[in-house]
Structures are given as C-alpha cells and as structure tokens.
Amino acid sequence: MEKVNALGRRKAAVARVLLTEGNGTITINKRPLDVYFPSSILQYIVRQPLQTLDALGKYDILVHLDGGGYKGQAEALRLAIARALVKVNPEDKPALRAEGFMTRDARSVERKKPGRPKARKRFQFSKR
C-alpha cells in the first residue's frame, strides 16, 4: 500500500492526514495523540473510524492540524481519517457512512451583525 492523503474540515479546523501501513501510531503536529489531545473523549472521537473497521493497529497516521478549537480539530481529524480509509478500501464506505463519519458537518459560527453585540443578541431594551 502506498501513502494515502485525505483532508477533513470542521468549523475553522483543517486536518491533513497521511495514512501508511504500520503499527497504529497517530502523530499530530509532531506530537503523539495522547499528548496533543489529553482528553480521553477527544482521543475516542479520533479513533472512532478505526474502531468501526477494526483497523486500530494497521495504519500509521501522520496529521497536520490547523485552526479551530480542540473539539473542532478532533472532529476534522475523524473525517480525514475516515476519508483516507475509504481511499484505501472503497468497500468500507457504507459502514463508515452508517456511523456518520463520512458526512462533513458544515455548521460554523454565524457572523456578527452590525448594531448588535453578537449575531442574534440585541442590546437591552430601555423604555425610558
């Protein structure tokens, strides 16, 4: 198997993944997964596509993560890993789609409107 590239996005986060055959190490911005994401919940989110396909020890994953917060970065990385796994084996796509890992979550922050403190919030009304 040659190297497989994939891209995942969520909110403002962008994850670029390089998937190669190996022993299951995940390196994010030159740091191990458990150092970059200390939270076990975020580590679980990142590993979900691999667990679905029972591929936890099969691939080495090299990641370049940029932008956003830690939750958005973890979800962008999950999408990128799922896309890379589908490039390796297209028959895995229905299983990953059923779990919702192939869908790009397009929700992002609504822009701030003029004359308001936030996107939808209004200043306090004063009768007098």
Description of the molecule:
The chain has helices spanning 33-36, 40-52, 70-88, 93-99, and strands spanning 4-10, 13-21, 26-28, 31-32, 59-66. With 128 residues, it is α+β, with helices and mostly antiparallel strands. The protein has a single domain, classed as Ribosomal Protein S5, domain 2. The chain has a five-stranded mixed beta sheet with strand order 1-2-5-3-4. Helix 2 (40-52) packs parallel to helix 3. The longest helix is centred in the middle third of the chain and has 19 residues, at 70-88. The termini are far apart.
Uncertain residue segments: none
The tally of helices reads: 4
Portion of residues within helices: 25-40%
Number of strands: 5
CATH topology: Ribosomal Protein S5, domain 2
> How far from one another are the termini?
73 Å
Order of strands in the sheet with the most strands? 1-2-5-3-4
Per the principal axes of the C-alpha atoms, what is the gross shape?
elongated
Proportion of beta-strand residues: 15-25%
Order of helices and strands: EEEEHHEHH
Keywords summarizing the entry:
23% strand, single chain, 128 residues, elongated, 34% helix, alpha+beta
In short:
The protein is α+β, with helices and mostly antiparallel strands.
Question: What does the secondary structure layout of this molecule look like, with pairings?
Answer:
Elements: E1 4-10, E2 13-21, E3 26-28, E4 31-32, H1 33-36, H2 40-52, E5 59-66, H3 70-88, H4 93-99
Parallel strand pairs: 3-5
Antiparallel strand pairs: 1-2, 2-5, 3-4
Helix pairs in contact: 2-3
